[in-house]
Write a structure and sequence with these properties.
Layout (H helix, E strand, L loop, with lengths): L1 H20 L4 E4 L9 E4 L2 E9 L2 E9 L1 H5 L11 E6 L25 H35 L9 H7 L5 H10 L8 H8 L3 E8 L3 E8 L2 E8 L4 H11 L12 E8 L4 E8 L6 H7 L4 H19 L10 E3 L8 E3 L5 E3 L6 E4 L4 E3 L14 H4 L8 H20 L25 H10 L14 H13 L10 H18 L1
Antiparallel strand pairs: 1-2, 3-4, 3-5, 6-7, 7-8, 8-10, 9-10, 11-14, 12-13, 14-15
Helix pairs in contact: 9-11, 9-14, 11-13, 13-14
């Protein structure tokens, strides 16, 4: 009976979702949509969420797109500290929603003698079975220990053999993404992976939370842990990484997203590939770069950004995406000295059919030091998607300057510095950056000695064309990629 009821409810939800896909728009309550009178419209579902933060219940109400609706994790209640509810009629999320009461808070009727017998008998039987199984398991382990080295008990081997039979994590991702939509692993596999990761050490902290190095089936993975109050950032980044056809060798390899209850609060996990060299910022602080290294680093970054910016047209196409926070700390360095672009929490997608821009309702802003002139003086047209791509290109030019200054020219290597380090404070305000970039029209210094090296001369020209005050005059990511590719071929032909 219960199984039939669940099937009926699931069928009803699918019918409602199908109606939404046919163009039946919903109007929902939206807490942070002040410009639209606290309402939003969607083709998916209305969403209400309540979570426990610092002992208080926080309620969030907004719209879910069809893509988010298909990601069942967003309509899934995670134990007692978070409750989510999806519905499919206008303003249906305008409800009062509470966390379920603690089981001990409600009074229970007195138990009858038969019930007491059952309560006493069942635990005794279960305890007996557990003792027998423990003895049997101990004997089995004791015998196997004599034959071979005992495996690490912290590795969840049974889950590994179930999800990853004889394959590396990279093979598993390749198989499942190339045979499907290219948008990521199935949600069940994501949850299985996330819940069997053993955290090893913390490797970074940021505005969102922490980054840990974890182990899954003997392989290193990176785990980005958001606090429950930053649920929108986690929700947004997980959604962006699961965009159809997004996967690319120069974009951080997404593995899984899941919410985990640690007993005190809900942790929101984003699991990705782990790069032991860390961010480009860390790499440049501790390493100098050869001419070949500059070409590899800059070409891989341009390739990743060009893939983000490019729209792939088709039934399984990819929307154009702008990053909005390009900087050396959001670019990771692989073992082979190439790069992968990370942190898509502020990214925006462009729907070319409807000509709409999916701007996240997120309180975070981009990094002030890397903001383009039109952002600093509030002159950017937010209704034109090309504006966001051009702002990315300006920031890319600054990243290229950071890389190039660490190249040895005539035996001279500059100390690593951030862009505009000599004209603004270490933590500049928007007003500091506006004065330098917009009023004084300053840009990072390009040394004269770069003219003695073909690669640095070309990089200097690219930077200048990325830094134009007029965004429409800047290069595109694809043009930059082709220019560096030609530089690479010239280098190989001379060799």
């Amino acid at each position: 009976m219960r199984r039939a009821l669940r099937s009926g409810l699931r069928a009803a939800a699918l019918i409602l979702a199908a109606c939404a896909a046919l163009g039946t728009g919903l109007t929902c309550v939206c807490h942070w949509c002040e410009k639209t009178n606290f309402t939003c419209e969607t083709e998916g579902a209305c969403w209400a969420s309540v979570m426990l933060t610092n002992g208080k219940q926080e309620v969030v109400k907004t719209c879910l797109s069809i893509l988010e609706l298909n990601a069942e994790v967003f309509c899934h209640d995670s134990r007692s500290v978070t409750r989510r509810q999806c519905c499919y009629t206008d303003f249906c999320n305008n409800i009062t929603i509470h966390l379920p009461l603690d089981e001990n808070s409600s009074r229970k009727p007195a138990l009858r003698p038969v019930e007491w017998t059952v309560i006493i008998t069942i635990p005794v039987c279960v305890l007996s079975v557990v003792v027998l199984l423990t003895l049997y398991t101990y004997q089995g382990h004791h015998c196997r220990f004599k034959k071979k080295k005992r495996p690490n008990i912290e590795e969840p081997l049974s889950e590994c053999s179930l999800v990853n039979p004889g394959k590396s994590l990279k093979d598993l991702i390749f198989d499942m993404t190339t045979s499907g939509s290219g948008s990521g692993l199935p949600l069940l596999v994501q949850r299985t992976i996330a819940r069997t990761i053993v955290l090893q050490e913390i490797v970074g902290k940021g505005r969102f939370g922490e980054v840990w190095r974890g182990k899954w089936c003997g392989e290193d993975v990176a785990v980005k842990i958001f606090s429950s109050r930053d649920e929108r950032s986690w929700f947004r980044e997980a959604e962006m990484y699961q965009t159809i056809m997004l996967r690319h060798e120069n974009i951080l390899g997404f593995i899984a997203a899941d919410n985990k209850d640690n007993g005190t609060w809900t942790q929101l996990w984003l699991v990705s590939e782990y790069y032991e060299q860390g961010s480009l910022f860390d790499y440049l602080n501790s390493n100098t770069v050869t001419v070949e290294g500059i070409i590899k680093l800059t070409f891989s970054i341009a390739s990743g950004l060009a893939h983000l910016h490019m729209e792939i047209v088709g039934t399984q196409g990819k929307p154009a995406i702008a990053h909005r926070d390009v900087k050396s700390k959001n670019i990771l360095v692989k073992r082979n000295e190439t790069c992968a672009i990370a942190d898509l929490g502020l990214a925006v997608k462009h729907d070319s059919v409807l000509n709409t821009i999916d701007i996240p309702q997120n309180p975070r802003v981009g990094t002030k030091r890397y903001m383009a002139p039109e952002i600093l003086d509030d002159a950017m047209n937010l209704n034109i998607f090309e504006s966001f791509k051009r702002a990315d290109i300006y920031a890319l030019g600054l990243v290229y300057w950071e890389i190039s200054q660490r190249c040895s020219v005539g035996g001279i290597v500059e100390e690593y510095q951030l862009p505009y380090h000599d004209v603004v404070p270490s933590d500049p305000s928007i007003e500091d950056m506006r004065r330098v970039v917009c009023e004084q029209k300053l840009r990072p210094n390009i040394p004269n000695q770069w003219q003695n090296c073909e690669a640095l001369r070309v990089m200097g020209r690219i930077m200048r064309e990325c830094w134009y005050a007029n965004g429409a005059a800047r290069l595109t990511a694809l043009r930059i990629k082709k220019t560096i590719s030609q530089l690479c071929m010239q280098k190989h032909s001379k060799a």
